[in-house]
Write a structure and sequence with these properties.
globular, alpha+beta, about 35% strand, 8-stranded antiparallel beta barrel
Length: about 180
């Protein structure tokens, strides 16, 4: 009887320790909505040999969800100020973004939905894939370019703006 009581206490302690020691790196605020403060850089945003990145400006990106699988981003800093819409897709601990509407058609040569994907933006994860994997398989060809996304663990957002005068890259942290 004493042995089974000891086993019960040990099992109880093990269960207590396992439930009390939850992962601390789990996402506490996994929402991508919010304000991201960062830098808007010309070109790749890489520093030159002298250590200075040319044309860097403090910048802000305000992100808000506008519907199922859609966000609006207002990015501004220096003389740059733009508001645009993107589709977003779950990809494990990241959220990937893709152009939407006419911008998607202009970049990829067809309208979204002309691929073999079915279901909503965030749903229909066939074959245990992510929303991003389903989007890539259903809407894109190999080599199609994408311009940014969110790291929910690091609470960061990065996006490259394709401009005729040269690319601009925003990289920011959610505060």
């Amino acid at each position: 009887m004493k042995m089974s009581k000891r086993i019960g206490i040990v099992v109880g302690l093990i269960l207590f320790v396992l439930t009390a020691c939850e992962k601390t790196d789990e996402l506490q605020d996994s929402s991508i909505e919010g304000t991201y403060f960062g830098i808007l850089s010309e070109g790749s945003g890489l520093k030159s040999a002298s250590g200075a990145a040319g044309g860097d400006h403090g910048a802000t990106a305000d992100v808000r969800k506008t519907g199922e699988g859609q966000i609006e981003i207002h990015c501004y800093g220096g003389e740059f100020d733009t508001t645009f819409m993107l589709n977003y897709f779950e990809n494990h601990d990241s959220i990937m973004v893709c152009l939407e509407g006419e911008n998607f058609q202009a970049m990829y040569g067809h309208m979204m939905g002309n691929g073999h994907m079915s279901g909503g933006m965030m749903g229909n994860h066939s074959n245990n894939g992510t929303g991003w994997a389903n989007h890539m398989n259903g809407e894109h060809q190999q080599g199609d370019e994408h311009f940014g996304g969110f790291d929910r663990m690091g609470k960061t957002f990065g996006y490259t703006f394709k401009m005729e005068s040269g690319d601009l890259h925003f990289q920011g942290v959610k505060k």
